[in-house]
């Protein structure tokens, strides 16, 4: 039929015994980016001239004039250097007699000196759920539209900073190791001496993937997050979903999903078997290092079956390989079906396919989506037909004559709102594809 260009294995969610997989959601984890004003204790190599003076003093050559005669350094310059050493508490000077301090004797033994300097350390990211200091490469200023975010559990107060002094110091030293100049690691050792306070702070978010499951026995929902072995994020979401607005962002109100309340889905055993066989073959091939082009995969891939999660999006972006002559997309949920990648793919296919988009006039932000979809070269706009209807309660995608996809939406109660589960299926039967296309376009067979 066509080459399978996307990774099926990535679309298979983790399975959990005793639970039905519902959907994957984006979950945004709050972080505080802060900068700190600090005093740093720096341990540096002892300058050669300091070392010479300390050794001479230790050998009882402890007068300025005597050291000047031995080293050939003018007394005026020597006085300045000894003055610097006195400020560092390496020597004590009285009546032109130099005496080693305890710190000076330690420096002589180690051939190192210690200084205290003021610094700023910026872009420190603290996880506002766990309190851990982490390195982040990609962060978001705010969660994207209709996606869940957790509220901060831990506030980064002065008390928090004080109680986590050792953690900040460890992070500071780790950062030095990552950015240190080659050859200096054995010569310089810095550590935080004192945290003066915060320089700045701002909220940001890390995007993670969370899986939603339904308990087969009692229908309770379970949330589990990637990169979260102790399920801290999933447990926090389960608590916050009842009283935190951000955590509820992925839910729909009764007003917005009322048209789905009467949707009924009867699982087709044959299609379900084909789906499970496809999953098994894909997982076996993944374990053995094979790819998607094997005959076993194609056998079950191109059979009538239920789609893997959001697989319809990958099929739509494969239109170049599928090569349909007509494309019909009817949905009351077009904003999720037509993302930027799908729109770009559809616009690129206008030379080879006529496109019909059927929208629900009551869908939120539909006019903005229409402008984006029709924003193409004038000479090709006549190959996109935009049709407006009302109360569309499912999604149909026809890639004629190759395949037809149907997506039904099942509301699952979560407190006063609803989580929408998608049940998507595909057929490759040419007669069914033609029949569904004609039905959507009101064409009599």
Protein described:
With 445 residues, the chain is of the alpha+beta class. The chain folds into 3 domains: 142 residues, no CATH class; 64 residues, Arc Repressor Mutant, subunit A, CATH 1.10.10; 183 residues, Endonuclease Chain A (Endonuclease, Chain A). It is 33% helix and 31% strand. The strands form 3 sheets. Strands 9-15-14-13-10-11-12 form a 7-stranded mixed beta sheet. Strands 1, 4, 5, 6, 7 and 8 form a 6-stranded mixed beta sheet that branches. Helix 15 links the parallel strand 11 and strand 12. The radius of gyration is 34 Å and the shape is elongated. The two termini are 25 Å apart. The model has no long low-confidence stretch (mean pLDDT 90).
Describe the secondary structure blueprint for this structure.
Layout: E1 19-45, H1 48-58, H2 64-71, H3 75-87, E2 91-94, E3 97-100, H4 102-110, E4 112-127, E5 133-134, E6 148-149, H5 158-163, H6 165-179, E7 189-215, E8 221-225, H7 232-240, H8 254-257, H9 269-288, H10 295-301, E9 305-306, H11 311-316, H12 319-322, E10 326-331, H13 334-337, H14 340-348, E11 354-360, H15 366-374, E12 384-389, E13 394-400, E14 403-414, E15 417-427, H16 430-440
Helix pairs in contact: 1-4, 9-10
Short characterization:
The chain is α+β, with helices and mostly antiparallel strands and 445 residues long.
